[in-house]
Amino acid sequence: MPTNTLTDSACKRAAAGSSPIKLFDGHGLHLFVTPTGGKHWRMAYRVAGKQQTATFGPYPAVSLADARKRRDELLARLAAGERPKTPKAVGAMTFKKACESYWSGRSDVSDSYRDNALRGLELHLWPDLGTTPVDQITRALLLEPLLRMDAAGKHVYVRKVRMWAGQVFDWAVEWGTAAANPAATIRPEKAFGKSPVESFAALELSDVRPFMERLAFENPDLSSVLACKLMALTWVRTKEIRKMLWEQVDGDMWRVPKQIMKRRRVHLVPLSRQALALLDVMRARRNGPYVFPADHRNDRSISENTVLALIARMGYKGRMTGHGWRSVASTWANEAGFNPDAIERQLSHAPDDETRAVYNRAEYLDIRKRMMQAWADWLLPA
Prior knowledge:
The protein is α+β, with helices and mostly antiparallel strands. It has helices at residues 8-13, 64-79, 87-90, 95-104, 111-124, 126-129, 139-151, 157-174, 188-191, 205-215, 223-234, 238-242, 273-284, 306-313, 324-335, 340-346, 354-363, 365-379; strands at residues 21-26, 29-33, 39-47, 50-58, 249-250, 253-256, 267-270.
């Protein structure tokens, strides 16, 4: 069997695919590349005829040379008759320890978000599952404390706790300390209740497709239809879409002036291909400063009830609002795994500190562009 077939450049170039990828180096050693882009060294071997897997750590923290050294050491121990710990013993990390290890390594989120996630897990899951080995937690075990949260009326928060736990299980799977993610088998829209409808009602993700199919039956040239779609594509508030001026559109970016924004700060909105196509439709009929002018007054914008009236006519009164797209999009982006701080910035939930707000605007703009295009492709596929 060929040995030492990998190169460091090949390891660096290895890209994520739709399913896990294994790059073999010989004698069972391979680089395991997850669909999320994680790279981990693993080694397949047999003990008494049974397949076993050893984990040597993440690449590039553990280099190719180090991984080979650990492989050779394990082979020598096996040849000497030693029996290394099985994956079951190696995977006996408790759920609490897994939560702490995963979230302490999330340098891509704010301290407050990390603290909120850990606090939620500590309060609601650790009492039941904290000392349980992470690889022994089943769907039923995880669902029990989550259902207690739901029964207590925490219909929104229980979804966040499930999501935070799911990220921990995904990490544990990549590290070889768990075989599956039980949170992924829990469907929030089926398992948990819904909060009473508030002023800004919003659809569940599972209801978005039927809503868009119903919207397609409306006259596509109506300003209300186009405004509703652009709200969905940009995550802005009703006032911001109503007061949108052509002079604010700069290529593939919408610069919302601070005078309109709730927090009185300039807000940058990346425009997806679908949003730009929609603006092209409105530009063809342009005869005033507003992107969405009133029907009979070009010097005024559409009213605040224009989109609400459309939604009510479609049969979704009390279930959806124009503002509700912000909640729908936020849920989609969080479940899709996008950076939480980038999501908050896109919603114009900027930090109170102006210096940090400016820094975040620059730091997350590229992520937000990718996120908004991915959202548009999901919402309005070609």
